[in-house]
Amino acid sequence: EEVVKNIIEDFKVIDILINNAGVSTMNYFWELKEEEWDFNMNVNAKGVWLVSKYVAPHMIKRRKGKIVNTASMAGKIGADLLAHYSASKFAVVGFTQAAAKELAPYGINVNSVCPGFVKTSMQDREIVWEAKLRGVDDPEEIRRGYIKQTPLGRLCYPEDVAKVVLFLASEDANFMTGQAINVTGGVCMH
Q1: How far apart are CA 180 and CA 45, in angstroms?
Q2: pTM
Q3: Where are the domains of the chain?
Q4: Which is deepest, 55, 62, 88, 97, by most CB within 10 Å?
């Protein structure tokens, strides 16, 4: 709340909000600790709600704005070893749809992106965790598996996602709201 207040004081307006913080841990759901569940839910779902909660009144007053939330392919297709992460990202997709309906009368668009297997430092950690949990000696074998699952035959790059976010934040997406756009190279097609 304080950060949003300071931004408005310094810059006068918030035209675009990109909710892009995210965390993960990995384990079989029956071995997760409650702290892991809460950590994923607090950052991935509650964080989206809290920032949006404090930005929305400003956008409502101005009767315009764009909100883009980062969900995940795991928010559309439950991912094994990531039940808690999937639950948090399904929550982001649901929140996006509900917020889109509530904010539409004020000219505010709310959409989300659902990245697939993105080559990031987060993925670097996850392939090590997944290899250990699956008893695979070489973590890069896990990454090669991600590529095999992807019809376009490569990993997603942050720039692939950024281009879709840029589109959703632009006037070109003025008639889109409540959408969860896949950026998965074809892994997820719904």
Answers
A1: 15
A2: 0.96
A3: 2-116+158-183
A4: 88
